[in-house]
Design brief:
Blueprint: H1 11-19, H2 22-25, H3 30-36, H4 57-60, H5 84-88, E1 98-101, E2 122-124, E3 130-132, H6 133-139, E4 142-149, E5 152-158, E6 168-169, H7 173-187, H8 214-218, H9 236-244, H10 259-263, H11 280-294, H12 298-307, E7 316-319, E8 332-334, H13 336-347, E9 351-352, E10 355-356, H14 360-368, H15 372-375, E11 388-390, E12 393-395, E13 403-407, E14 411-416, E15 421-427, H16 438-453
Antiparallel strand pairs: 1-7, 2-3, 4-5, 4-15, 6-8, 7-8, 9-10, 11-12, 12-13, 13-14, 14-15
Helix pairs in contact: 7-11
Length: 454
């Protein structure tokens, strides 16, 4: 019965998938923008978007005076409204508690330059309209775009006050870093993917994860009741936002005030392992497992295993909740060039800067992907046709063996092994969900891959 939609599929699950707005947003943080603009909640309905030039930070003038005047002020009350969000994604640590991810004292690893005029490269979007890479970047509210070919920077652009040294909020790209840590621990035998979650986190015994396996968490096939209805303030995604500190808590709020306490409140929904449903809370549980097994804070693991060993140019940082727990599904902030280094490390099979960062078997397993039939039930097949999800990574299953980390509002680390290409795109698009832009994004990836090969 598994993987066959016409034989015993729970009707209530299929109905929930059809109705769940979360299938478009792809991450819990989408609600924060939608609080300000509910009409943007359904990306496929064709929202009226502002002209990209009209919402450039130079024109908006946020936070320029001291103290900032009311009209230019960005604070927790409006930080995820649009267009204030365009400022927030480059300045999160000025508004929320964070923990540093130190790069160390070693020199930065080389990213040699080999510039090519890829901005002028023409391709057809999903509707057959011709546009250039520069047009695509501008129209999708790109803040930074870096393309590597064989480890060399062949194209790089920054907009909207972004600089090579500017960290950018990555939203759900964070999940893929949590997945890398966990996948390596699985390879090392320190995490058993077939073990119950409660072997590592017994505190979750009374929740949806009480009888769930670690593999279900890694691939988001665990059945947890977590409703992501951005138009309903009583839905679980709002409670997650308030518990983690992403949203202000209303007067009289008596719910959880940190992520881990919130996770304990979520019950089981359906059978585990039957289908993929994208839920940010799985990434938070996975991060809890990683920290429990290692006895280390997620930010320190990131520093020691990636940032210091890889010779990153800049420190990174992660948002934390009221008790210092990092948002391991949404809170990482880093620069485009350092993310390009991560993509190149993966393209090279886990080695970079003269060091082994991950075992090649870990990278190969991620690139192979997960169950494509289970993926179809998650409601994301229209935006990501043919994809699967494995170890918190999106796998395209195309001829080039491409896979990627992705986050709402247009964050990507895209790895194309056959083309020997890595693309990092950091954006602040008004619409959170991939469904609005991803068909053209796929065309852009393909055009860039063809161009670097030629």
């Amino acid at each position: 019965m598994k993987n066959t939609p016409d034989r015993g599929r729970p009707a209530r699950f299929l109905d929930k998938v059809r109705r769940a707005p979360g299938r478009l947003a792809g991450a819990s943080l989408g609600l924060l923008t939608l609080l300000a603009a509910p009409s943007m909640g359904q990306a496929q309905s064709g929202p009226q978007l502002p002209a990209p030039e009209a919402v450039q930070l130079d024109r908006l003038g946020y936070m320029k005076s001291y103290p900032p005047e009311a009209g230019e002020r960005v604070d927790l009350s409006n930080s995820y409204k649009y267009p204030q969000m365009r400022w927030t994604v480059q300045h999160l640590r000025e508004l929320a508690p964070t923990r540093n991810i130190r790069r160390g004292a070693a020199p930065a690893s080389a990213l040699p330059a080999d510039p090519r005029p890829l901005g002028q490269l023409m391709f057809e979007d999903d509707k057959g309209r011709a546009l250039s890479i520069d047009d695509w970047a501008r129209s999708t509210y790109t803040d930074a775009l870096v393309v590597l070919h064989k480890g060399r920077v062949v194209y790089e652009r920054y907009d909207n006050q972004m600089k090579p040294s500017s960290p950018h909020l990555l939203f759900s790209v964070t999940k893929s870093f949590t997945g890398l840590l966990a996948a390596q621990l699985v390879h090392d035998g320190r995490i058993d993917p077939d073990a119950p979650v409660t072997k590592y986190v017994p505190e979750l015994a009374g929740s949806a994860w009480g009888d769930m396996k670690v593999r279900h968490v890694l691939d988001m096939t665990g059945a947890v009741r977590f409703r992501e209805d951005y138009n309903d303030p009583s839905s679980d995604v709002y409670r997650y936002g308030m518990a983690s500190g992403l949203l202000p808590r209303p007067a009289g709020y008596q719910g959880p005030n940190n992520i881990d306490d919130f996770l304990k409140t979520l019950p089981k929904d359906d059978e585990h392992g039957e289908h993929f449903v994208y839920r940010t809370v799985h990434s938070e549980v996975l991060g809890w497992i990683v920290s429990r097994v290692t006895g280390r804070h997620w930010a320190d693991l990131m520093s020691e295993n990636f940032w210091q060993k890889m010779g990153m140019e800049e420190d990174a940082y992660v948002m934390v909740d009221s008790v210092g727990t990092p948002l391991q599904g949404a809170g990482l902030n880093a620069t485009a060039r350092d993310l390009a280094r991560v993509g190149e490390m993966l393209r090279l099979g886990g080695t970079f800067n003269g060091q082994k960062i991950l075992d090649k078997a870990v990278v190969d397993d991620i690139a192979r992907g997960g169950d494509r039939e289970k993926f179809k039930f998650g409601g994301l097949q229209a935006a990501r046709p043919g994809y699967s999800y494995h170890d918190q990574w999106w796998v395209l299953h195309n001829a080039d063996g491409a896979y990627e980390a992705a986050g709402i509002h247009g964050q990507f680390i895209h790895i194309n092994p056959a083309a020997e290409m890595v693309v990092v795109k950091l954006s602040s698009h008004p619409v959170p969900g991939a469904a609005f832009t991803h068909a053209t994004t796929l065309k852009a990836w393909a055009a860039l891959a063809k161009a670097v090969r030629d």
